Amino acid sequence: MTKRILIANRGEIASRIAKACRELEYTSVGLWTESEPHAKHLEFCDEWLFCPGETNKETYLNIDGLVKLAVDNKIDGVHPGYGFLSENTDFAAALEKAGIIFIGPNSNAVRLMGDKAISKTLAEKNNIPVVPGSTGAVATVEEAQKIAEEIEYPVLLKAVAGGGGRGLRPCFDKDELAANFEVVQREALSAFGNPDLLVEKFIQNPRHIEVQILADKKGNVFHFFERECSVQRRHQKIIEEAPSPFIGDDEALRKDLCETAVRLAKSVDYDSAGTVEFIMGDDKKFYFLEMNTRIQVEHPITEEITGIDLIVCMIQAAFGDDLGIPSQDWITRSGHAIECRICAEDPITMLPAPGKVTGFETNFPQGTRFDNCIYKGLEVTPDFDPMVGKLVTKGLKRGVALRKMKAALNGLFVEGLKTNIPLHKVILENEKFKSGNYSTNFIKEENPQGEINIEFDHLRFYKMLATIEARRMGF
Ligand code: ADP
Ligand code: ADP
Ligand code: MG
What we know:
It contains 15 helices and 20 strands. The protein is an alpha+beta fold.
């Protein structure tokens, strides 16, 4: 029987979810708001619902409003995407009370993993290595300093409820810790509604490597290998690749990492798509960071190397359906995939740069995937995440995936909006990046933004656009 799925999100992920619904022959219901009446995701949805309100708080974060919309419109399940209410247990509980399926994990798993202090304690209990630091939240500066002396500086202050790279602050000595403590507490309270902080060792030269999990309601928990996400600015990923070039062909390490992630997921009876994040030192020792109990931005690269549709499976899992996966060994990977997050930001300062798209053309190499929400007329405002698309390429070897990515970036024309496309281009040419042996300090150490040549990019851009224009005019 067909089901009605409400997509409680916007942007590229809303289109992605609508495509999965179409494949399952479920009716996708998209939301439109006053501020985005022409949002691109609506093109992919079977039905549209008006979501009243001007701010995110009144629309995509409005639990009562969204649940009422779902009830009034006979919705069977709600997919929250990422961000917004995707990791909100109140939303999941309110839907459950209304007899509507939350397309995500059970609320207990979200609660346990939503707090970085609780999840770390839980990981430790399951003999999973965690970054040395406080057990639970620290209440005072003195307590934080005492732990910092024990584990030795530098340390990282981290909001237990944080996310999206926010609520983190490294401290290199006692005074810096004292100066930062209240600042981060205040930031955490205003951004996440919870001022609690934990303190942990600030690992030098780490890699961010994470494992994709998919579980059903029958107790099956599978992993879909790892992703390398160490190219970051402000603790936020901008390029991801799968598999991790740092793990390379060390299959024993890969197995250990992936099985550790499965063990953690099993300990909270996980039953959906999720990601277990780790940091790995130069010595290949890894430590649990956090678990994201939702679909992640960078899920496409895993789909590309394993051939599995994670969103389709996530919907099936939520309704208690069979995933059709006979065993872990049945899941295999081939080749290499890479993703560049296309953000409306200044490529040099890497700060958000709102604006309006006045032109959009693509001229991609074979096999390019571009999950995006761009159209001529799109206005990127400070209210929304500046990410407007995800460019994904793959090849049987890493070098081929990188070559295709370079060509794809050269064939992506966004006019009127400042984007980080020029930054991606220079990163792709960077020797350290090409070697595959890079840490989360990559941007800081290599300063790729210093090599951006906007004039050259513009020249190539307009030459290609002129060719496209000429073709359209029949020359
Ligand atoms: P991912 O973890 O999927 O790789 P991000 O960390 O960039 O990607 O998060 C995806 C989106 O979710 C971003 O828009 C980010 O701002 C938002 N987000 C993640 N965690 C939280 C949180 N705890 N509170 C608010 N927004 C969050
Ligand atoms: P978020 O919820 O914001 O994603 P994470 O705990 O996943 O928070 O950390 C985000 C990023 O910050 C990581 O990908 C990593 O680059 C960096 N980071 C987090 N913890 C540490 C640490 N203990 N040492 C060094 N870097 C860290
Ligand atoms: Mg994280």
